[in-house]
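Key result, reporting period 2: structure in, sequence out.
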């Protein structure tokens, strides 16, 4: 999977890495039990600080998306962790400002739902 960093983005680089790995899992580009590059390899490939990659990997590990093992390296977790209730709270918190913008711009609910359907179409149900 090829990660692309947008150095002009307001989103921190570690979060861009985290988000792209989760999207890669959802799209099937990253399979359960697949190895990821080491912190050093990924930081070199992206031209960023190792601590930034380490922060993204630690976040993914804490959330249950990846496993980190000294012998095995970093890999996509076969038993995705995470609590659905915690996710839904975080989802609501993160989507609320976007929905507020949609309301201000008079974007209809149907249009927002079509956008969500379009994004999730490739991920199955």
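The corresponding designed sequence is given below.
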């Amino acid at each position: 999977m090829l990660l692309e960093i947008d150095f002009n983005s307001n989103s921190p680089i570690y979060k861009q890495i985290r988000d792209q790995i989760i999207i890669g899992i959802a799209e099937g580009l990253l399979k359960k039990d697949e190895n990821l590059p080491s912190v050093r390899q990924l930081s070199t490939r992206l031209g960023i600080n190792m601590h930034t990659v380490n922060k993204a990997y630690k976040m993914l590990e804490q959330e249950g998306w990846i496993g980190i093992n000294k012998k095995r390296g970093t890999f996509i977790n076969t038993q995705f962790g995470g609590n659905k209730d915690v996710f839904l709270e975080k989802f609501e918190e993160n989507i609320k400002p976007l929905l507020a913008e949609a309301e201000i711009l008079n974007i209809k609910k149907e249009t927002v739902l079509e956008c969500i359907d379009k994004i999730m179409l490739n991920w199955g149900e």
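Helices lie at 13-26, 39-46, 50-62, 84-104, 109-120. The two ends are 22 Å apart (CA to CA). This case is discussed further under Risks and Mitigation.
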